Structure formats: structure tokens, C-alpha cells
Here is the input.
Amino acid sequence: MKLTANQIAESVDGKVVGNNSAEISKVAKIEEADNSSLCFISNKKYLKHLKTTQAGIVLVGSDVNEVPKNVTVVQCAQPYVAFCHILIQYFQYQDPNKGIHATAVIETSASIGEGCYVGPNAYIGENVSLGSNSKVYANTSIYENCSIGDNTSIYSNCTLYYESVVGSDCIIHSGTVIGSDGFGHAPLPDGTYIKIPQIGNVVIKNNVEIGSNCSIDRANMGSTLIEEGCRIDNLIQIAHGVQIGKYTVVAAQTGISGSSKVGDHCVLAGQVGVAGHITIANKVQIGAQSGVSNNIREEGGKFTDSPHLPLGNALKSRVLYKNLPQLEKRVRDIEQQLKTDN
Here is the structure.
């Protein structure tokens, strides 16, 4: 696959500065690129690399005007997004898997759409509905009464418990479990526990991507809900009855406790912990390793630390904390001076 600067500019609605016929056949980081590589610069601090790069073509912002004579660039509004479009259109891996593998087990009541792939040792249970052009990879089990939309890929070694619902254009990566029992156990007078039946399900809307080795529990009653466009990273626990709003991003090792509600367009960074029955407003950003123990009502707020604090307050607190040893010494010195004076 070879692309010229002109072809790339047409694809991303950009403008060529330099050699219109310059060609590339691969992509690379700007520090590692050679004359057959396409790369991008979206952060201005990396513009210094334009002077030394060997890249064949570089995607840059529309406001980048100082371009070395030996470098060909394509100016565009959003170089990172443009780079993604080029990757998707020309370089993305094309999955060759098609058809139903001989070792797959598909119950007779299941409905399999046109163009689907079901891999080795996969299991499709009673009354499962699998939409057109969807893919279920090796050793994945989809149990009774599940519904999966069109163009959805469920990779190897996943499990969808009964009555789980997954929309169209979704991706679920290997090792993830959808619809396992929520953590519900009521204490008894003798110190033992009775298991609380989890009779709800999990509903995942369209265009959601879920990383590897995640666990999304079914609701006690009703549905655990992941709304349209969410991006769920690897190693994440979403407990029973949680609701996550549209286009929210949740990074690795985050845990969201039961019945909590996260708004639309939120960002939860790595290792965030959310207590149960918490409500988080739309467009909230929560920093890594934060602990959210109370409702966040402020739309668009930024928070960090545990327990969570508004970002500005948290940064001030960190400065004070850093200075505590010096402050303690000053207090001791003052106390000693007072004793001496008396």
C-alpha cells in the first residue's frame, strides 16, 4: 500500500506543503520514521522534530507554517484524528475469519445473522440472537436468551451470561465476563450469609468497546447499563445496577460499586474507586487513584485524591502536605522558645 501526499490530503481535507508526489507505505512515530513513513504531530512541543525527522510525510496542524524545505507535511485541522482516519482506511488489520467453525456448538433455537463468524469451540446458547456480520471468537460462551447486534466482535474466552444484551458495532476483548452475579449477600443473625438472587441483566448499547479481563455484573433487579459510545479499558469492575452514561471513558483498574450512576462524557482515570449508590454529573473528570465517596453534582468539574476534592483544592493541599515537616519543626522551635522565655 502506497499513498501520496496528495491522496492523504484529499482523505483528511488537508493541504500539502512540500512535495505533492511524496509517497509513504507505512506509519511510524516521528522519532523513528524513515522516508517511507507517515507520522503526525498534534502537540506543539514535538514540532522540534520537524527539523530532524526522516519521515516521508508528516500530518501537522493547520497553524503550522514553519516547515523545513526537505520535509513534506499535510496541514489539517486535527492531525491526530486525521492520522486515525488514515490508519482505519488503509492500515487497519483485516480479519480473515469467516463462517462457522466445525467445532462450534450452536443450539437449534439460536438465530445467526448473515455474514457471521463463530470460532472454534465457541458456544451459542438457546434463543440467542446474533446480528449480521458479528463475530464470536474461539472458546467464547454466549448463554441463553442473549441478544447481540450487528457488526459486533466478541473475542476469545469471553462469557456472556443469560439475557445479556449487547448492541451493534461493539467490541468486547478477551477474558471479559458480562452478566455474572452481582455481589449481593445478606448477613444472618448467626454470622453467615444468604445469597441475594440477581435476577436482572446487563444492557450494553451501540458502539461500546470493552477491554480485556473486565467484569460487568448483572443487576439485582432491572439492568446494569452501559450507554452508547462508552470506552471501558482493561481490568475494570462494574458492579450490579451501575449506570454509565454516553461516551464516558473509564481507564484501567477502576472499580464502580453497586447502583452508582456516572454521567455522560465523563472521564474516570486509572484505579479510580467509586463507592456504592453515588451519582456523578455529566462531563466530570476524575484523576487517577481517586476515591469518590459522595455525590458529585457539579457538571464539568475536575476532581482528584481520596476522598475526592476539587482539583484546585487538592493541589493546594498537596503543597501544604509537602511542607508539613518544616511546619512541625517551626512549631516545635516556637514551643521551645516559649518554654525558655518563661
